[in-house]
Design brief:
about 475 residues, Helix Hairpins, 3 domains, 4-stranded antiparallel beta sheet, about 70% helix, about 5% strand, Polysaccharide chain length determinant N-terminal domain-containing protein, transmembrane helix
Length: about 475
């Protein structure tokens, strides 16, 4: 008996499942269209497909919520083509491109950041975990200032573009805070217009003269303050009037001194005459008193007196006594008058000296006051000239800007009230489409896996069936 002949003790067992192991494959091959296959797959795995579809829609909504977190503020700048030169005509002209580059320039962006505040626009955040790890590992890191970091972030969030088929430049900026976004865009446009005026108009000369005017105003105020303090400290409020009053007083005092001296000389001469008269009357008065008292003995012969005896020789004795008394009284009066005149002369002389000193002091103060007044007058005159020139330059710059300026703000940035992301309905539409596609794909994949659990021997046919499935069209 050969080995190929069946043995008697073996039984033949029929296995129908082995014969029908390619039934699923045959079903796929004999299908009239791919739509029937997709429908069978969806009917068999409908729960999984529905789960995939719902998860896809939820993922789209979540993605919209994650991406749609910033507000966009925008401003529009109008380019007046009628005021440009022929070389600047057109939407793609050198002028327009230059303005877009100027809006994106570092100077303009940094000026806007400075106006808003870099710490307010982009607050300094603590070091991240990666930076802390590098610090822990002693790895050298390049420290960046908050101003530079704010500039880089603002430059990335800023977008400047020319609107298609228009003469408008749109400046947009995205930020998490809508108010800061609008403030930054407005500050950027103002900074840009200031730089534009400095480059294309005569605003620089007007600003220079305005600065000179401010400096001269401070100079005039300083000179006026110095002059006022000097006049207050020295009481030189009106030097000409004060000088006139002092000269008048000096003249009056000089007249008074001359009058007093004249009267003093007169009184002194009167006193001398009275003294001589008293000297002549004194012996006769003594003899007259002795004649009036006869009980007393006659006095001894007197020494001859050195005066003219014939002056009062024939007068009665009592008359001589009365004349002596009156002369003595007149003598005393003249003495007091002379003393008063001498005191008045001394006072007037001292006052005249004080007036002379005041005149000398006033003369020196007058020189310094005139110098300060000349400084103030020169500063005021220079201020008047510079102010006039600055006004002319400012008017010329305004007229030039009004006539030649090609850039104007058409629309300032306002505070946005909604985020700048796409509409949620767009996310839902795309998410629904992709979710449905994914759900059908998952169902078909599971159907294929179920059909090809036992791989076919004909590999080429299996590959073609797979390609036909992914094409979604019948061959």
């Amino acid at each position: 008996m050969t080995s190929l002949e069946p043995r008697q003790d073996y039984r033949v067992i029929l296995r129908p499942q082995v014969e029908d192991r390619r039934a699923a494959e045959k079903d796929i091959e004999q299908s009239d269209s791919l739509e029937l296959f997709v429908l069978r797959a969806l009917r068999r795995y409908w729960l999984i497909s529905a789960t995939v579809f719902v998860l896809g829609i939820l993922s789209a909504v979540l993605l919209h919520a994650l991406l749609d977190t910033k507000y966009e503020a925008a401003a529009s700048l109008l380019i007046d083509n009628g005021k440009q030169s022929e070389a600047n005509q057109g939407f793609d002209s050198v002028f327009v491109n230059s303005q877009i580059e100027l809006l994106n320039s570092e100077f303009v962006i940094r000026s806007a950041i400075q106006n808003v505040g870099d710490g307010k626009l982009y607050p300094k955040s603590p070091d991240g975990e990666f930076s802390q790890l590098l610090t822990y590992l002693s790895v050298a890191q390049k420290k960046m200032k908050n101003e530079d970091r704010a500039y880089k972030s603002a430059a990335r969030a800023l977008k400047v573009q020319l609107e298609p088929r228009t003469s408008m430049i749109r400046v947009s900026f995205r930020h998490e805070d809508p108010r800061l976004a609008a403030s930054f865009v407005n500050a950027l446009t103002e900074s840009y217009l200031g730089k534009y005026r400095a480059l294309y108009t005569q605003a620089g000369a007007a600003d220079f003269l305005h600065g000179e005017v401010d400096q001269l105003q401070r100079k005039v105020a300083t000179a006026a303050g110095v002059l006022g303090a000097f006049m207050t400290a020295n009481r030189t409020y009106a030097i000409d009037e004060q000088k006139k009053l002092l000269l008048t007083r000096q003249s009056d005092l000089a007249k008074s001194v001359a009058t007093v001296r004249t009267e003093l000389a007169q009184r002194q001469e009167e006193l001398r005459v009275v003294e001589e008269q008293i000297g002549q009357l004194r012996p006769n008065a003594a003899r007259a008193s002795q004649a009036r008292d006869p009980s007393k003995p006659a006095p001894e012969a007197a020494v001859p007196l050195p005066y003219n005896r014939n002056l009062f020789g024939d007068d009665p004795p009592l008359l001589l006594v009365k004349l002596y008394q009156e002369s003595t009284q007149q003598f005393l009066t003249l003495k007091m008058t002379i003393a008063g005149l001498r005191a008045a002369e001394s006072a007037h002389t001292a006052e005249l000296g004080n007036v002379a000193k005041e005149l000398v002091t006033l003369a020196s103060l007058e020189a310094e006051t005139n110098r300060l007044k000349r400084q103030l007058s020169s500063a005021e005159q220079e201020l008047s000239e510079i102010t006039s020139r600055a006004g002319e330059k400012r008017i010329a710059a305004a007229m030039t800007e009004n006539n030649l300026s090609a850039i104007k703000i058409a629309q300032s940035a306002s505070v946005p009230f909604e985020t700048a992301g796409r509409s949620v309905w767009l996310f839902l539409a795309i998410g629904s489409f992709l979710s449905a596609l994914t759900a059908v794909g998952v169902a078909c994949a599971l159907q294929l896996i179920s059909a090809h659990r036992n791989p076919p021997t004909y590999v080429a046919a299996s590959f073609l069936r797979t390609v036909r499935f992914y094409m979604f069209f019948p061959s």
